[in-house]
Design a protein that fits this description.
Blueprint: H1 2-14, H2 18-33, E1 37-44, E2 49-56, E3 67-69, H3 73-81, E4 85-87, E5 109-117, E6 120-129, H4 137-159, E7 173-176, E8 178-181, E9 184-192, H5 209-234, H6 240-253, H7 255-267, H8 272-289, H9 293-313, E10 328-332, H10 337-342, E11 348-353, H11 361-369, E12 373-375, E13 389-393, E14 398-401, H12 405-426, E15 443-447, H13 454-458, E16 464-468, H14 470-474, H15 482-496, E17 501-504, H16 531-536, H17 538-551, E18 558-562, H18 568-587, E19 596-601, H19 610-614, E20 619-622, H20 624-632, H21 650-665, E21 670-672, H22 680-689, E22 693-696, H23 701-710, H24 713-723, H25 729-742
Parallel strand pairs: 9-10, 10-11, 11-12, 15-16, 15-22, 16-17, 17-18, 18-19, 19-20, 20-21, 21-22
Antiparallel strand pairs: 1-2, 1-6, 2-3, 4-5, 5-6, 7-14, 8-12, 9-13, 13-14
The structure holds phosphoenolpyruvate (PEP) and magnesium ion.
Phosphoenolpyruvate (PEP) is lined by residues 359, 466, 468, 507, 602, 623-626, 673-674.
Length: 753
């Protein structure tokens, strides 16, 4: 059975399109289970019914005709209960319903299993038999496994619009992702792909295989011409032996080699760039493993040829357009900060990408710039989106392609409401962040970008609560040197002086890679991250500390923050390096004061080491983004579990309250610089817990300030005591929403469904 399973799975995954995958699957299942009928019913959400989509054994005319409301008939019952149903004598079951179109009365036995993807029921897979048969445990396990396999294929097809169920009005399609930066936008999709990068080509099912093959051939033809021209240019300058290499390239590109294989892959259901990338990858992997220097060299040649062909394939959809529409919604497999910089700010209205999550660095940048963003849209059909009108909802993590007029009108009014609100709130931005009963709640900003408009912010904040130094490191091509860093930090310290600026030492690893310092790990968030990297590379940390100290000379507003601390020895070691840097600078004639030093509380272990930490540092800063992922064991970047990621989980609230009480007992300031601080109701709870400051992205300031200015401190404390009694994240959210509604502050909360 296992072998059959593996083969079916391979065939389904390699099928050209969804129809072919479904047809293959029902045929193979029927054969493997030696049964008479195998059918697949798709659940249509709008009809709340199951529709027969594919069958082998029932009459094919029944496809699309048999429609069973949820809970009706045996198939409807399987769907409703989301449980398998195994009946030897199906006709005697009270739910049995007869459909003439299927010719079903001839079948006695029935086994149906639900198809479930991420808790959503997508359909039902059924086998039937004419004579009475008790399907055994192995049959049931086989069908359940097939259903689980089909679930992934179906979810992908539904999301990409490749499955023709009742279309949304006027062909509108909706894609879901992870909300990464709030706000809504309407505009034109501008698809960008990194140029000639074989590793970042997305997998896509071609809508027209012949077209894909034709453009592949054209691209190969152009590459061959290019190589011929290069060979001709070099003819008198290099040896005949070297020149012969160009013939090898021509052969590699020839019909019988690369071209044929790529074409085959296209016919199996991959678009041309994806097919090319697959074939090149396979060859390169093979050649790199061979114990022969000559052949290993050829791996590089194949990669290079692949890149050249890819560049030609991308000519018809250039990687970055020359001009942008006035309302560009940038869409890509992966969008880098550098790509963002290429679009004029006034034209950039939104961002969407297949990869990434709410805390990937492009999300952090987007939030700081106030650009609505949705990431982790894993099923986006990139090439078909180019130029399409879209509506982007950064609050709910949605993208609507070719929106229907009603939806457009609804979003137009939502956007207008949001603009009116921000206009209203802007009037109180220079007022103190103080509750009506006089409690002062200092607000700070998170920075890391040159675009942070310090001059405007300065009068509205109490300082910079988190300067993420890794952001400037990400946009350079190598580690910036001491001089360069000093300039960068001086700029930051000067811009906000005399306000305090908390500079965090390099926090790379996890999802924050430097292009010139890649870290490949199976579990990057549990691996070499933050302080763990910089303590292993004291030369990098020393340069950074020296640069920070030099930059702070005579400004004295520098605070140093160490990320990802797990053990106090790490703090001791980091402090030792800091003191050494001060000493070294002194020897060089640069006398600097020892800045105040803090640690990030983001690894749960630190919650229980507050006393030991307090002996060593001057302040605490809670990184709720990481604390949430580590306390709940939910990868902050994984869209599959994003519904479990919740900074308002009762466990988090308990930890945060304890942390704040500990800090008060230890007489140390404690701030919070994760995303929770920028959520108005979250901010009220943190204020009530006694956090000494809250640090957030600049665009979150107006709403948080508005909430603080309207809710008396004692009411926030009352709210906190109510919330602390609740058992589930959903109850916490509901209660907060209700109280915000009572206070007529629900307009400050992000819109939800
Ligand atoms: C955090 O973890 O909450 C935090 C502020 O740091 P980062 O998001 O950069 O990891
Ligand atoms: Mg963190």
């Amino acid at each position: 059975m296992l072998e059959v399973l593996r083969r079916v799975i391979q065939e389904v995954n390699g099928a050209r399109n969804l129809d072919a995958a479904l047809a293959t699957m029902v045929r193979r299942i029927r054969k493997a289970m030696q049964t008479d009928v195998c059918s697949f019913y798709l659940y249509d959400k709008e009809l709340e019914s199951l529709v027969l989509m594919e069958t082998i054994g029932l009459r094919t005319q029944a496809v699309g005709q048999v429609v069973l409301p949820l809970g009706e008939g045996l198939v409807g019952l399987v769907a409703k209960r989301s449980e398998p149903l195994n009946l030897e004598d199906a006709q005697s079951h009270p739910h049995f319903r007869y459909f003439e179109a299927t010719g079903e009365e001839r079948y006695s036995s029935f086994l149906g299993v639900p198809i479930i993807h991420q808790r959503l029921m997508l359909g039902v897979l059924v086998v039937q038999q004419a004579e009475q048969r008790q399907y055994d445990d192995e049959d049931e396990a086989f069908l359940v496994t097939m259903a689980a396999q089909l679930a992934g294929v179906l979810a992908h097809a539904l999301a990409t619009g490749n499955l023709n169920r009742r279309a949304l009005p006027s062909g509108q399609t909706m894609f879901k992702g992870v909300a990464a930066s709030p706000g809504m936008a309407m505009g034109e999709a501008v698809v960008i792909t990194p140029p000639s990068d074989l590793n970042s080509v997305p997998d896509l099912v071609p809508s027209d295989e012949d077209f894909e093959v034709a453009r592949l051939k054209e691209a190969i033809g152009k590459t061959r011409a290019e190589i011929r021209a290069a060979a001709e240019r070099l003819v008198n300058r290099i040896s005949t032996q070297e020149l012969a290499l160009f013939d090898v390239y021509q052969q590699m590109l020839g019909e019988a080699a690369l071209s044929e294989e790529v074409e085959k892959r296209i016919r199996e259901g991959q678009w041309a760039p994806g097919a090319l990338a697959d074939v090149v990858r396979r060859h390169v992997q093979y050649l790199e493993r061979v114990d022969d220097n000559y052949l290993r060299e050829r791996a590089a040649d194949i990669r290079d040829l692949g890149r050249r062909v890819l560049a030609h394939l991308q000519e018809d959809s250039p990687s970055t357009p020359e001009t942008y529409p006035d309302n560009a919604i940038l869409v890509g497999d992966e969008i880098s900060v550098a790509m963002l910089g290429e679009v004029p700010r006034d034209k950039l209205k939104g961002l969407v990408s297949v990869r990434g999550s709410s805390t990937s660095h492009v999300a952090i940048v987007a939030r700081a710039m106030g650009i609505p963003t949705v990431l982790g849209m894993v099923d986006l059909p990139l090439p078909r989106l180019s130029g399409a009108p879209v509506v982007l909802d950064g609050h709910r993590g949605r993208l609507f392609v070719r929106p229907a007029p009603e939806l457009k009108a609804r979003y137009e009014s939502l956007i207008a409401e949001e603009e009116a609100l921000s206009e209203l709130l802007s009037h109180e931005q220079d007022l103190p962040s103080e509750t009506p009963d006089g409690h002062d709640m200092p607000l700070m900003v998170n920075t890391g970008l040159a675009v942070d408009a310090a001059a405007l912010l300065k009068s509205r904040i109490s300082g910079v609560g988190l300067y993420r130094t890794e952001v400037p490191f990400m946009i350079t091509e190598r580690f910036p040197g001491e001089k360069e860093q000093t300039r960068l930090y001086r700029d930051q310290l000067e811009s906000f002086s005399p306000l305090p600026v908390v500079m965090r030492t390099l926090d790379i690893g996890g999802d924050k890679d430097l292009p010139y310092f890649p870290i490949e790990e199976a579990n990057p968030f549990l691996g070499w991250r933050g302080m763990r990297v910089t303590l292993d590379h004291p030369e990098v940390l020393m340069v950074q500390l020296r640069a920070m100290l030099k930059a702070s000379k005579e400004l004295d507003n520098l605070y140093v923050l160490f990320p990802m601390i797990t053990n106090v020895e790490e703090v001791d070691e980091a402090l030792r390096l800091l003191d050494r840097a001060i000493l070294e600078l002194g020897e060089e004639g640069i006398d600097v004061e020892r800045p105040k030093v803090g640690v990030m509380i983001e690894v749960p272990a630190t919650i229980y080491q507050m006393d030991a930490l307090a002996k060593r540092v001057d302040f605490f800063s809670v990184g709720s983004n990481d604390l949430t992922q580590y306390l709940l064991a939910v990868d902050r970047n994984n869209p599959r579990v994003s519904s479990l990621y919740d900074a308002l989980h009762p466990a988090l609230l308990g930890a945060l309250q304890e942390l704040s009480q500990d800090a008060q007992r230890l007489k140390k300031p404690i701030s919070l610089c994760g995303e929770l601080a920028g959520d108005p109701s979250g901010a009220l709870l943190l204020m009530a817990m006694g956090f000494t400051s809250l640090s957030m992205n600049a665009p979150s300031l107006p709403k948080v300030r508005a909430a603080i200015r309207r809710v008396p401190f004692r009411d926030a404390q009352q709210l906190l005591s109510e919330v602390m009694l609740l058992d589930t994240p959903a109850q916490v959210h509901m209660h907060l929403d209700k109280r915000m509604d009572d206070w007529q502050l629900s307009h400050l909360l992000p819109p939800r469904d």
